[in-house]
Write a structure and sequence with these properties.
- GO terms for molecular function: shikimate 3-dehydrogenase (NADP+) activity.
- Its EC number is 1.1.1.25.
- InterPro entries: Aminoacid_DH-like_N_sf, NAD(P)-bd_dom_sf, Shikimate_DH_fam.
- The chain folds into 2 domains: 135 residues, Leucine Dehydrogenase, chain A, domain 1 (Rossmann fold, 3-Layer(aba) Sandwich); 139 residues, NAD(P)-binding Rossmann-like Domain (Rossmann fold, 3-Layer(aba) Sandwich), CATH 3.40.50.
- 39% of the residues lie in helices and 19% in strands.
- Strands 2-1-3-5-6-4 form a 6-stranded mixed sheet, with helices on both faces. A 6-stranded parallel sheet has the order 9-8-7-10-11-12, sandwiched between helices.
- The longest helix is centred in the C-terminal third of the chain and has 17 residues.
- With 284 residues, the chain is an alpha/beta fold.
Length: 284
């Protein structure tokens, strides 16, 4: 069989992939664009990540999506990166270029693309909840798109000072600072009018974090929550009750998958079809 007769293939690599709509959405993307490509999903723990990346590279996969818990670990094990992946030191997507897989980070830009459909980012005072998951990529993207200031609520209590120092060094003309935060109290400054929750903490924390933020939510704000779930998250429910514009996680995931498919195939699928697929999978 000639190499040209083999089906093109892509995959998802992650931990706890059960219940994730990505596979269903990518299959829909290929169908909508008329591409005879195949998509696979692999459950891979941190200890086997290097083997998995080597395997998909050797087997000729054209593209890979990585779930958030493996994105920063993957950066060290991919030989070539885009400029934005080098900036965040994280890889959410692999694409084949010149017979090798190149790492890119679509996580932050997918959040931004959904926000700017409602309101411009330039001049806004932003806050992100944590730097794990999509958090760091979202922080970089917000500042690159002109946010006047950035507050970081470090709910994970991880050692994130190195990432914060890099943000400050990259954007020395912008205010970048941490704010006091835990599950009961988040000291959100009154000027903040853009809030992004892009981390991957345990879902049990969603409700208390939403309650801690509720007094600070207003109708002049836009609030994005990258958590993929059926319906609105507790944070977005609270924000919508107060008249804020909200951006749910399935919209962000649809944007990221559409961009990944474009990078893999050269054809961008319609996001509406991907949203329909996500809602069908999640039973919305």
């Amino acid at each position: 069989m000639s190499e040209s007769s083999l089906l093109e293939k892509c995959c998802l690599i992650g931990q706890s992939v059960t219940g994730n709509p990505t596979h269903f959405m990518v299959d829909r993307a290929f169908a909508e664009t008329g591409l005879d490509w195949r998509f696979l999903t692999f459950e891979v723990g941190e200890s086997r990540l290097v083997d998995a990346i080597r395997g998909v590279s050797a087997l000729g996969f054209s593209g890979v999506l990585l779930l958030p818990s493996l994105q920063r670990l993957s950066w060290d094990h991919v030989g070539k990166h885009t400029e934005r992946a080098d900036q965040t030191r994280s890889v959410s997507c692999l694409m084949r270029r010149d017979d090798r897989l190149v790492g890119d980070d679509l996580a932050g830009e997918s959040v931004i693309a959904c926000i700017v459909r409602s309101l411009p980012i330039a001049g806004r005072h932003a806050a992100v909840l944590g730097l794990e998951g999509r958090g760091l990529a979202t922080a970089y993207a917000l500042l690159q798109h002109g946010a006047a200031s950035l507050r970081i609520a470090d709910l994970s209590q991880d050692d994130s000072q190195e990432q914060i120092d890099r943000l400050k060094a990259t954007f020395p003309d912008r205010l970048v600072e941490t704010i006091d935060a835990d599950d009961q109290f988040i000291d959100l400054p009154g000027e903040v009018n853009l809030l992004a929750s892009a981390s991957c903490w345990d879902k049990k924390r969603d409700a208390p974090v939403a309650e801690a933020l509720a007094p600070s939510l207003r109708d002049d704000m836009i609030v994005a929550d990258a958590r993929v779930r059926a319906g609105l998250s507790p944070l977005l429910h609270r924000a919508a009750e107060r008249g804020a514009k909200v951006v749910p996680g399935i919209e962000i995931l649809a944007r990221e998958i559409a961009e990944a498919v474009r990078l893999w195939t050269g054809v961008e699928p319609p996001e509406d079809a991907l949203l329909d697929a996500a809602e069908e999978f999640l039973g919305v």
